[in-house]
Design goal:
This protein is mostly helical and about 110 residues long. It has helices spanning about 1-20, 25-35, 40-50, 55-75, 75-90, 95-105. The protein has 6 helices and no strands. The longest helix has 22 residues, at about 55-75.
Length: about 110
């Protein structure tokens, strides 16, 4: 179960970063990309960013908090997931070209 939660968190982190990463400070964004996307260690990221391991941890914690707040305000991830669900639920009723185009637009 912990592995599934970890995988779900990694997916969510990626979605948050894709949608709201531009709103972070440069250091927060870089720390998130290194730790969350490139799977570097705290030590490796700290060396690159010129901060301590604790500093990297703090950058990521604050970045996640900010991105979750943006998601609460704007709901981009939730809306996209709703659109994907509606698309799938109605797949049989939709023309194939419409379905394929909409799926492409959603990036799903």
């Amino acid at each position: 179960m912990a592995e599934k939660d970890s995988l779900n968190q990694r997916v969510r982190d990626g979605l948050l970063l894709d949608n709201y990463g531009a709103q972070l400070t440069e250091k927060q964004r870089m720390a998130c990309e290194m730790i969350l996307m490139q799977d570097l260690s705290l030590s490796e990221a700290a060396e690159t960013l010129g901060v301590s391991r604790q500093g990297v941890h703090d950058l990521i914690t604050r970045a996640r908090e900010h991105m979750e707040e943006y998601e609460k305000s704007f709901g981009l991830i939730a809306r996209r997931q709703q659109m994907e669900q509606v698309l799938e639920e109605n797949r049989e009723r939709l023309p194939e070209d419409f379905y394929a185009t909409f799926k492409k637009i959603l990036g799903a």
